[in-house]
Write a structure and sequence with these properties.
Blueprint lengths: L1 H14 L5 H4 L2 H6 L32 H8 L2 E12 L11 E13 L5 E5 H4 L4 E6 L2 E4 L1 E6 L4 E5 L21 E6 L7 E12 L13 E4 L11 E3 L5 E8 L10 E5 H14 L9 E5 L2 H7 L7 E6 L4 H4 L7 E5 L2 E2 L3 H9 L6 E8 L2 E8 L15 E3 L4 E5 L2 H7 L5 E6 L15 E5 L2 E2 L3 H10 L3 E7 L5 E7 L1
Antiparallel strand pairs: 1-2, 1-4, 2-3, 3-7, 4-5, 6-7, 8-9, 8-11, 9-10, 10-13, 11-12, 12-13, 14-15, 15-16, 16-17, 16-18, 18-19, 20-21, 21-22, 22-23, 23-24, 23-25, 25-26
Length: 478
């Protein structure tokens, strides 16, 4: 009985709340003791002091109003229209094809106060009319330059004192940090969605250029049709990427969006603005990610780095002795995690830059210094060399050396663009194809191509190489 009375007293005393518990239990030691479990309710101060070292575990940002305010006014709405020819039935093959107006929309980001805007190439590609809407103002947009290899384009509107966006550094972006996607999905202007960066350096093989550069920032911020060309910003409202693609089976958002890192955007924008084209740097080798299947076939134990699958004869990689089957482990002292990371490094480089590579050849580590070149195989900065033929309604350029080497040709003229009403449209040869000869005679310059076509009478046979390297011949009666 005595023991029972004493035990009851101790239990009663233990259950009583301590008078100074609230004062002793501060916000700081709540964070330090977050794994402890208490059986009593603790009353914290109604307005706890805020400081960087005193945050509730799992605390999140209260809202994104500052980032939204800082960025939405720098994002524009882009509307495009173009005339598209089509054949609706068998009769159209005997008569003139019909046409219809095709409209599209997207977003763009103001990069300078005097009207230079970055968007996606696929937003304005083949557009006859580009309309840019900023607030209540509407402007006519003109194309300054495009870069299909990154799916970026620069357009210009005649305006001043525009609110250019603040630019960050995509190299310091971390997986898990909060981001906002700003754009105009489904024609809904100035829409903001929030999410986190879920991955970096993503290569998803969606760009159809001959030399694509894919190192996307992946985010779960909702991106839908119309967001293309819009801004991906951090919590300060600073640009970290241009929204470009979504991964979806339906065409609408399904959890994953992809943005071109702002460091690549900056280079493309500055090059197009200054030189009229992007100063591309070439390595001279193709490479692929190493997965478990590939590693098993080649007895590779370390899955980091990329495997060299092809080296172009005479290229920078070939000259320093990089071979098919080599594994590139590091670039400039940094580990190569995937193909996208190396593509981003090269995409941010200029002809003449030197990359220090650590090459794994059957377990032996080799150090190689590779000097990057331009598309002509030199280290010079190139100017746009396009030639427009009014007679044939098309724009041409000499085929770059890097493409001639790949296709095994010594001469050729590349089709840059084709007017919708021009004569060349009837030849049914798409842009980006290379014309190597006419009636058996090789052509080297656009001027030579134009002169030969002017003189031909009767049936003309045109030798062509497609983007995927297929050799074809087209015939037409002049």
């Amino acid at each position: 009985m005595i023991f029972g009375i004493v035990g009851a007293g101790i239990f009663y005393k233990w259950m009583q709340p301590t008078d100074n518990l609230t004062e002793q239990y501060s916000l700081t030691n709540y964070e330090n003791d977050q794994n402890r479990v208490f059986s009593r309710q603790v009353t914290l101060p109604s307005t706890p002091p805020v400081n960087s070292s005193a945050k509730l575990p799992g605390a999140i940002i209260q809202d994104f109003s500052e980032a939204s305010y800082a960025s939405t006014n720098s994002v524009v709405f882009i509307q495009t229209s173009s005339e598209v020819e089509y054949r609706g039935g068998w009769a159209d093959w005997f008569f003139e094809p019909r046409s219809r107006t095709q409209v599209g929309s997207g977003s763009g980001v103001i990069m300078t106060a005097d009207g230079y805007i970055v968007t996606n190439n696929h937003v304005i590609e083949d557009a006859d009319i580009i309309k840019v809407i900023h607030g209540k103002n509407s402007y006519s947009g003109t194309i300054v330059g495009t870069d299909p290899s990154t799916d970026l384009a620069v357009i210009k509107i005649e305006a001043n004192n525009l609110p250019k966006i603040s630019v960050s550094n995509s190299d310091v972006v971390k997986v898990g940090e909060w981001v906002l996607a700003v754009g105009n999905p489904f024609n809904l202007e100035s829409t903001v969605t929030a999410g986190i960066v879920s991955a970096k350096g993503r290569n998803i093989n969606i760009l159809r250029d001959k030399f694509p550069i894919e190192s996307f920032i992946q985010t779960d911020a909702a991106i839908n049709p119309g967001n293309s060309g819009g801004a991906l910003v951090n919590i300060k409202g600073e640009l970290i990427g241009i929204n470009t693609a979504i991964l979806s089976r339906t065409g609408s958002y399904a959890g994953y969006g992809f943005a071109v890192p702002v460091n690549i955007v900056n280079k493309v924008f500055n090059d197009i603005k200054e030189y009229g084209q992007v100063q591309k740097a070439f390595f001279g080798a193709e490479y692929m990610d190493i997965d478990s299947d590939l590693a098993g076939k080649r007895n590779i134990t370390d899955l980091s780095g990329v495997l060299v699958s092809f080296t172009l004869d005479g290229s920078s990689a070939d000259k320093v002795g990089i071979r098919k089957g080599d594994i590139l482990r590091k670039v400039n002292g940094q580990e190569i995690n995937n193909k996208g990371y190396l593509e981003e490094i090269i995409g941010n480089s200029y002809p003449g830059d030197v990359l220090s590579l650590t090459v794994d050849r059957e377990g032996k580590m080799l150090n190689k210094s590779v000097t990057l070149t331009n598309q002509e195989g030199t280290t010079d900065l190139l100017k746009k060399n396009n030639y427009y033929s009014e007679v044939f309604g098309a724009t041409f350029t000499p085929a770059p050396k890097v493409e001639r080497d790949i296709y095994g040709i010594s001469k050729g003229v590349k089709i840059v663009d084709i007017d919708k009403d021009g004569f060349f449209r009837a030849l049914d040869i798409p842009k980006n194809h290379i014309i190597t000869g006419i009636n058996g005679k090789a052509v080297e310059t656009p001027e030579e191509l134009e002169e030969i076509l002017k003189q031909v009478r009767g049936i003309v046979y045109i030798s062509v190489i497609s983007e995927n390297g297929r050799r074809m011949r087209r015939s037409y009666r002049m």
